[in-house]
Structures are given as structure tokens and as C-alpha cells.
Amino acid sequence: MSQSIPFVEYLALGDSPHLVANECTACGARFFDRRNACANCFATGFRKVDIATEGEVRAFTIVSLAAPGIPVPFVSATVDCAGTSVRANLINVDPTPEAVHVGMKVRLALQPVGADGSGVEAVNFGFEPQR
Amino acid sequence: MASDDVWILGITMTKFGKHPTKDVIDLAAEATMGALADAGVTMREMGLLAFGSLMGRASGQMLQKQVGQTGIPVYNVSNACATGATALRVCHMAIRAGDADFGLAVGVEKLAGAGLLAGGSRGGDSENWTPTGRFGAVGPIDGRIGTETMPGVFAQIGLEYGHKYGGTSFELFAKISEKNHAHSTLNPLAAYSKRFSLEQIMNDVMIAYPNTRPMCSANCDGAAAAVLVSDAKLKTLSLEQQRRAVKISASVLTTDPWEEACQVLPNVNTLTRQAATQAYEKAGIGPEDLDLVELHDCFATAELVHYDNLKLCEEGGAVDFFNSGATWRDGKTPVNVSGGLESKGHPIAATGIANVWEVATHLRGEAGDRQLPNARVGLAHVIGLGNACGVHILERAAA
User: Which residues form the Thiolase C-terminal domain (chain B) (predicted)?
Assistant: First the structure.
């Protein structure tokens, strides 16, 4: 079994993959990036919280023109995971307006990105339709 | 008795489009000298210069070296697509503060043929996966975790509005673009002034669903400049200068307050609503009083949400408002009679002054074939992603 690494630090791999946010201990605002302070209340205390793996598509687009090297078309979406918004690609779905719609129920899924020079596999996340 | 009002004394925009033989300073100089001539003053009277050129390596000092070095302070400003509005705002503040009687605001860009501005290129993966940056990402995230392209971001913003309130469709967004392209046929300074049928728009190249190519703002070259003056100084100028002066009844700049999701998908709504609210209050003018609006239709999907954000309609009512025909040039609240960014073009730093020029030109009754009859009050709006929002409310001189 080759070694693997999450594509971003806020993705937790393992038996039940999920996203992890930095939650402000003062006001509850959630962020996925490394923080200096809370953008909402300026407090500096944060705790790690697990984000729901099921959600609803609140907005999407099907990108047909992107930078060289990015496979198109692909679906970019904003997914509402039980009140926390997540930016992600929609995967395992046809990138067509017939197959994707706002309000659709989706769940977190993993997608390999590839191995680096020493054989370490990077694993990314996306959201796929709930079946 | 002079008030603390600030006026536009002179304003101009260059033809937007392709200017292969001119550099950014040529374009900025053309707009600057045009605005000074329009104002009937010279560089000698200017108390400050606020200059914006987002993508070029130009500065206000480089412009001064071509049009007049008088030792005045230069403020080189950068605020994404709100850069031009920010330059205006800087002059407005300096005059209000009593620091200057006259201010010159200039925005310029050379972007013809530029392609995607954000998300147009992406770095390669490194030899060894190493977490870097604020997300601890082991490689570039554009295209892997959503999109960074502007057509894609604003497509989502439009569809999000549809999800919240209903009524949107690919065809609806294309109809907004159809309107703006139709308006552009009367604007000789627009980069593109060709009418498109709804079918042509919908069948054109898809960029980011539902935005096809004609539904995206056009990259182009162009500049715009404005001379602002204090009320006290204006009263000492000629009656003709006073007659053509346009009052800045509100000049507002905002950023987006934190709200859930705003760091995931840029929220262009909160800061536009706040800017509009502040501007209407300062001006003592309501959205129902507006004779025309130039708003930031960087994409057809964006225009829809700003009908709502600028309170041109009831909250949630943007689709019905558009379908009523209100925003066509013969409607209740004409929006983007210039053709908007989709056809007039979007030389980024020039846009926030060029849309003020469009409004001012109607208020002066000098808009030629596209003149809106009896235009007295207008609003100009820009959004810079990141985010910054500029709103200016303008009124015709009373005389």
C-alpha cells in the first residue's frame, strides 16, 4: 500500500473521510484556511470541527474555459453542508445542465490526484450525487 | 454660501476597443487632456492626481511626465475592478477635506486579447507533494477545488440567486445580455456595438454555464478621466462651466462584511446593498428617482443580482423586474444604456470612471443618439472582486 497525503490540510483521510474547519471559539464562524484571527469577531481562539459529509448544491457552474492543464468541462459548486459552505468540484456526474441543478443532494467523495516523485499519492475531495 | 458638495467639472472616456499603436500612458494622457479640456482648466489647477492601472505597470507619475509635472501628490490606487471608482473617491475625499480645490482621477488599461484574467494560468505540480499556503495544498487548487475564473465565479453568483428566489434560467440570463448588446448599437465609444439575437447569444461559445462569450465582459483597451471641483471653487468659474457641472450627490466605497460562505464564494451582494443604502441616504434620493443606472455587468449573471442589490426592485424580485422590461432604455429604470461591460468593454481600471462618464453625459444632455430624455439623476456602480464596491449618485446642475 503506497503512502497517501490529503490534497489540502483541511481534508481528513482515513476510514471516514471528512473536512475539518477552524471554528472561532467566540462566535462560531468557520474557516478552512490557516487563521490569524476571526474575520467576524476578531477573536484569536479556534477549535477543529468536523464538517458534515452530506450537503446540498447552493450554486454551481460548468466551466468550459480554464487555464491550460485543467480538464474541461468540469463542475464547480458551492455546497451547503449542514450550514457550512464548502467550495468543491462536483464529481461522478455528467458536467451538463441536465445532470446538475441547484438544490441537488450530494455527498463527499475522494478522488486521486496522482503520485509525486517518491510515490506519494495525493488524494483530493469532491462531492458526488447522493444515490 | 458654498456647500461641501463636490462636482464633476470635466469628464471623458476614450474609445474602448483595440488601440495597438498606443501604450497605457498614451491612453491615459488622451483621457486626461480630454477631461481637462472638457473642464476648461489645466494641470496647473489640479491639487492631486489619483491614478489606477491594474494590470499595467503604469503610475500617475509616468502620466505626469507626459502631461504636466506640477509637484502635486499622486495616489496610485488599486482596488480590482473598482479601481476607477476608488480614484474618484480619493479625489472626492481630498476636496471634501479641504486639501484641494481640484482633483484629477484617471483609470486606464490595455487588455485587448487578454483572455481569462483570473484563473488564466495555473502553476504545475511540484516533484514532491508539499503542503503550502493557507490551505496547506500540495498543488494548485484552481480546477481541482472549484474554479477561480471570473466567468465561473459570477455564474455561480447568478445561479445562487436563482436558487434563493427562483425564476432564473439560461435563457433569462441570455436575455439580459441581449438587452445590453442592443443598447450598445447607439454607443460609438463601445468596443462592440453589434446587436445579437437571443439565439446567437445562447448558441455562442460556452465559457462557464450559463455565461456564453457574449454574456461576458469584453477585455479591451481604454481610459477615462474626470476633473472634480469643490462647490466654492465652482462658484468662481464661468456660468457655462457651472451649467455643465454634474453634482456628486453621493460617493461611497465599501468592502464585504463577514458573512457565512463569503470566503468560499465571493459575496457581491452584501457590500453592494450597503453601498447603495449609504448612497441613497447621503443623496436623499431613492431608487425610484433614478433616470438611469450603469451597473457592473461583468457577466450577464451579475447584472441580475445587482437589480436587487441596488434596490431597483423589491428583494427577490429581480427576475420579474427584468421581465417587465424596466431595464431596457425605454423602461422605467434604464440599466446600462451604454451597452454595459458586455459590449462597451471592461478596461478594468477605466470602468469605474467610464460608467460615471456615461451617466454624466446623459445628465448634461450630451449623449447624442442614445440620450435619455430629461435625465436628471443617475447611479453608477462597480464591483471589484475581493471585494470592493463603488457607488456614485450624480445629479444634473439645478440651473
Answer: 270-395
User: What separation in angstroms does the CA of B346 have from each of A77, B192, B350?
Assistant: 26, 11, 8
Q: How many CB atoms within 10 Å of residue B144?
A: 23
Residue B335 is classified by DSSP as B
Interface pTM (ipTM) of the complex?
A: 0.97
CB-CB contact of A53 with A110 (8 Å): no
Q: Which residues face B11 on adjacent strands?
A: B226
B317-330 burial string, b = 16+ CB within 10 Å, else e?
ebbebbeeebbbee
| Nearest C-alpha neighbor of B249 from the set B160, B376, B366 | B376
Chain A partners within 8 Å of B258 (Cβ): 29, 39-40
> Which A residues, 56 through 95, put their C-beta within 8 Å of a C-beta on chain B?
58-71, 74, 76-78, 83-89
Kindly report, residue by residue over B83-119, the tens digit of the pLDDT. Answer: 999 999 999 999 999 999 999 999 999 998 887 778 8
pLDDT tens, residue by residue, A109-125? 999 999 999 999 999 99
Q: What is the CATH number of domain B150-216+250-396?
A: 3.40.47.10
Check residue A58 and give its pLDDT. 97
Task: Give the integer Cα–Cα distance in Å for B70 and B68.
Answer: 6
